[in-house]
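TASK: fixed-backbone design
INPUT:
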């Protein structure tokens, strides 16, 4: 009964994200040759997010060296989505990064879960810059141009994921 409906809806949301990313992939790869761009942050949600009463997206700045150099083309959309899923839902390594600590993601997660305890609250992580450098820090202008021209997906992700609440934790240097 209901479980099949839930799984199909979740699959549909993931499928829409995958299709969005794949529609941009070849152009992105072929235009990344003269950049030090890392792979983009490709979202893959879990059932809890899909089925939540309240969907909350927490947005950070950028990844640092996510999945290696994009121009090497060793990964595909599915493998990068799986990296997101495993990192977001199971990795303990992320707790050492400032974005994930009690002043940031974890704080909002705990506060909303407690304050909205009568509801199922689901979280998704996103970044204002979908493509970061293959090292730490703010993306170069070449990477920003690459993203703007060939991987401008943020608005479409919002349409697919339909968050009720979006929290930007990007600091004032990005405004």
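OUTPUT:
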């Amino acid at each position: 009964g209901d479980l099949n409906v839930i799984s199909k809806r979740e699959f549909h949301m993931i499928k829409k994200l995958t299709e969005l990313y794949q529609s941009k992939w070849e152009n992105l790869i072929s235009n990344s040759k003269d950049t030090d761009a890392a792979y983009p942050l490709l979202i893959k949600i879990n059932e809890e997010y899909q089925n939540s009463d309240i969907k909350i997206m927490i947005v950070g700045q950028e990844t640092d060296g996510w999945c290696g150099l994009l121009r090497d083309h060793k990964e595909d959309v599915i493998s990068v989505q799986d990296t997101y899923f495993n990192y977001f839902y199971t990795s303990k390594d992320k707790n050492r990064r400032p974005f994930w600590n009690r002043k940031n993601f974890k704080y909002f997660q705990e506060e909303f879960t407690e304050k909205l305890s009568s509801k199922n609250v689901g979280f998704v992580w996103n970044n204002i810059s979908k493509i970061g450098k293959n090292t730490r820090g703010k993306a170069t202008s070449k990477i920003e141009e690459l993203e703007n021209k060939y991987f401008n997906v943020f608005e479409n992700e919002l349409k697919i994921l339909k968050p009720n609440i979006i929290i930007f934790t990007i600091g004032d240097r990005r405004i």
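COMMENT: The mean pLDDT is 86.
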